[in-house]
Amino acid sequence: MKRFRALTVILSIAVMLVACVVGEEAAPPPVPTIADSLTPTSEPIPPATQASSIPSTTNKTTSGRMSEDETWHGEILITGDIEIPQGVILTIEPGTTIRFTAQSDDQHGEEEYSPEDPSTMHATMISILVFGELDAQGMPDQPIVFTSDSEAPGQMDWQSITVEGSGTVRLEHVTIEHGFFGLQLNSPMLHVAVSQSTFQDITTCAICAEGARPLEGPVIISDSQFIRCGRESIDTYRDQNIVVHHNVFSENYVGIMSVGSSITIEGNLFINNERGIGVVEGGTPDIIGNEFTQHQGAAIFVTDASPTVSNNNIYENLFNFQMEGGSQNAVAANNWWGSADPKVIGDSIQDGRDDPSLGIVDFEPYANEAFQLDIPEYE
User: Fold this and answer.
1) Domain shared by 236 and 89, yes or no
2) What is the largest CA-CA distance in the chain?
3) Which of 207, 259, 264, 351 has its CB 3.0 to 4.6 Å from that of 323, i.e. a possible disulfide?
């Protein structure tokens, strides 16, 4: 009888354990990212890779081709070009600072050019080439920084982060500074998401899309700052799926160039640049719900293109809108121009009314007061 009771207790415990296992709830799904909500026409950027068949190491490669997954943290000094091959993941932890030896690349020497470097660049500038995956997600109080190792950094101390092939890049709470470029997009199949990051003191363009190729993307650029870029902050070309949302552009030569592209530019602040947005060569971007002010040149300038310009606040610029070339007219209705007086609005626009060889900007109907826009603040 005692044996029977013991067996009964054991069976009861086993049943209880099985019930607990069966009753466990499934793990919650991953929280959607900003890329999921902003992508207009393409599939969202794939979620960060959870694991790889390649072993992972820490802070191993400071020059050359990576052979396995790596995690970087702390202070990293890069002495030569880094290649992240397809299938390899580089994860950079919050608070990490990556420094590049200024004007020195031990992969290619100091004076010679190399076929492996972009044709327009000296071999003395270091790049990170991404064919695989770069996952750099900092935190507000622990940003990730890509910068020069010089005590007196300049704007050409290193080259760029260059995305090739089907490379994937995620930048969040990242600062990129003192490079010739910031981020180069050189492939139609790449996936890039940039959010809550800063590009500053860049020699040419901070985010440069390859002009000869379409971008199936998507490329999402949001909630970031572009400060003191020597050419364009963002340079875009034909057939490129790019969304530029809720960013600040200040002290740049040009905020955004649309060279034949049909990108979306929405909810951004353009303040105190030489010029705000340029649209040329048949570009058809959607420029909606932005604010443009304090530009030394034109807030928006157009040559032979047809942008959609509406629901923006455009005021206190040398020219609120400028037709730079071509006889094609432009429609820019339903904007606030800093005044409800059509003569004052017309005087703030340079077009065929000033030079008969240029197209006319149709600014009517216009808003009688400023829009309450959802744009970022900037001090």
Assistant:
1) no
2) 110
3) 351
